[in-house]
Amino acid sequence: MIGIIGGSGLEDPRIINDFEEKEIDTPFGKPSDKIVLGKIEKIGVAIISRHGKKHSINPTNVPYKANIWALKQLGCTQILASTACGSLREKIKPGHIIFPDQFIDWTKKRGYTFFDSEKVMHIPMADPFCPGLRKILAKTAKELKLPFHEKGTIITIEGPRFSTRAESKMFRMLGADIINMSTVPEAILARELGICYQSIAMATDFDCFMENEKTVDIETVLKIMAKNAENVKKLLMKTIAAIPQKRNCGCEEHAKKALI
User: Fold this and answer.
1) I need a labelling partner for 228 at 20 to 30 A (CA). Which of 81, 144, 166, 180 fits?
2) How far apart are CA 83 and CA 85, in angstroms?
3) DSSP class of residue 128?
4) Which pLDDT score is estimated for 139?
């Protein structure tokens, strides 16, 4: 079972066969919305809309724990998570797809672990994304002739506001290539449950570090997002068919020795 976390216009059940919607309860409450279950290329998938189907949940209030737990509960061993992002580098243009290999956490208000009462998990996060999934995604994007970047550092901010110009310039100095509002704590929570996680970031704009560019606004983001989502749907359908059932990336091993 492959989990797909949609955000950014990807919560489209038409990309899967024999779909049904299922309401899930978890020890951490209800997920963002009903989960769409079905098949892509004969592979079982579970799709969840990160912000709800009506995009009514802001980034801080997304029930990240419930979402990841629900996908684990349904048997998902790998998660492909789409996200809109702003570009912090001239070479990453609006419309490009990025497969991050690192993140920087700039959030402030979220729950970052399932183990915050009786036990503590010191989960390794040196390489927070799945190298196996990233390799397959890059190969598929190349075959589809999509504009993509195989690596990059994504910084997650609290939102829902966009950055100031000073912040945008600072994030570039920190080494971030793209910016979003949802990768953290999703990637961390997936790692704690032994699930492979890879973000598919869709650049919708240049962040405001570029003073000669139009300042980012939601109208621009939505326009590029709609175009990007179609490319990502094609990418997902072809990628899912290529994911091997047996994992050899090592992602599931990180949690085994991390719990005290």
Assistant:
1) 166
2) 6
3) -
4) 98
